[in-house]
């Protein structure tokens, strides 16, 4: 017997637990009144289903309910029945969170609101009377922010502001974003603007997800303008709930060339802007859920040429610490690393190049940075000034005697020791020889990596992680990829680029790469007889070789049927179920002939087959289509695209999902779709 009150997918999973001749008792209401459909296939075990509405039962058969209540009381007295657990207790100020949890349909146990013996007031409206931080709500994007609030971004026309706006709308469901800038919308929409493409993508994403992006010409250093903006938004149905302060003026000068005017110009945006935000929030009693300030890793490197810039960063750290520790107000000052495709380092490539050569800096993907910020937000009470330090530890260790601070040198040496690196060994290439000897067999690498990935992804059983499937399709996000990147470096000394881990690498491919690199290292060590240390390897994407003997291309599901000898000829991608012998015989010859016969232009067309599995679960179609798009774009990086599939088959479902993702996520609208009747 299964007694169920869960809804949605959990209801369907509960039915699968029934034994032969089992009884399923449903006393939830959501799926009943939503007319949720159930598969008859899940009821094949000759089971019975009973839907019980206790309210209707009490109206129509009150005597039965009375008998049940009396029996239940007796069972409680005899202690045969115990209170339902777990019991989650909410304070009066959290009454909305309590009801949201109950309405989620996935809550276990009981939710109880404490109305007596509590020092907190009962909030029944949407606007609390204080802006103090709620220590019980650590999520960065609750309903109050995403649906009922506005995220205000200073320096909103910069690459980071535009990119993070797009991420918040697409990935976190934020509906209202306001971009502040001294520039106008007309300037933003000029094709010569470096952020023009980012702005077009943001407009497309906001339209797709029904979000509102407002652009306001407000100077963050002008108190009256900032005050009027926040006061005006407070009078709307979506007041300011989050602030991201990314305004910056970067202008490096040596100490000897510093002037009062230079300092005032550089400090104005960061320091005055942050302080004005702090004052206005208190004056308007704005209920701010988060206040993120963008500092920089350069603040911790003692660069004399960046003295004025780092003075601003130091102030942001001090302000975040003051708000959090003294006032218990939300604040986070994040020292950003070199962010791929956005931020100060992207605009000043000369600075980035210098830091890469001298300090071993590494680029971090924007999505990884945003997810890290989200993680920091949840722990801001413990660490309001986190630092994202993305570097090559091997490069730093080689320069440990030239690093600017003793503290940094100590961190590098500790990290180096933890990674089992040694620059004095004459029998290894910098990785402990005992580790290498244990990794001589590819099977051992696969087993260790599979165990590590299962731990990172929280799998209940290591066998749930498939070694031949891309890790992204098994739930690995950018944070998990970053952890895997560090683990591989620590265990093997081989650093596989994050981009590869996030674009289709499987455990088997990772093991092949690591095994190949370790063998090359052993061969080099035996030749040089330990004459000099070797640098930790960084994988070249052009050297990757998978488990079979063919060169890895990241297109394991794509085969070429028909090539052309004309440069720049169009490409056709036919979606079909995977053949057992990778051959597509007369049926595909007719397939191609029929398509070519319908084309009006006589231009040679290359034909590729995207092979899909014969049985793809409905829940994984989105992820599967994403993987197919990644492989297709390795063959043809840019549109227009031509997709072909059989009508009313699984191939059509995959093709339509690929087209949707190309349009919604990649803003690629030039896609031709041909359907063939079987």
TrEMBL record:
Entry coiled-coil feature ranges: none
InterPro entries: ACP-like_sf (IPR036736), KR_dom (IPR057326), NAD(P)-bd_dom_sf (IPR036291), PKS_KR (IPR013968), PKS_NRPS_Biosynth_Enz (IPR050091), PKS_PP-bd (IPR020806), PP-bd_ACP (IPR009081)
PROSITE patterns (UniProt xref): CARRIER
SUPFAM superfamilies associated with the record: ACP-like, NAD(P)-binding Rossmann-fold domains
UniProt keyword annotation of Phosphoprotein present: yes
Phylogenetic lineage: Eukaryota, Metazoa, Spiralia, Gnathifera, Rotifera
A Gene Ontology BP annotation from the UniProt entry: fatty acid biosynthetic process
Carrier domain: residues covered: 443-518
A Pfam family of this chain: ADH_zinc_N_2
GO molecular function terms listed in the Swiss-Prot or TrEMBL record: fatty acid synthase activity; phosphopantetheine binding
Alphabetically ordered keywords of this record: Phosphopantetheine, Phosphoprotein
Protein's UniProt name: Carrier domain-containing protein
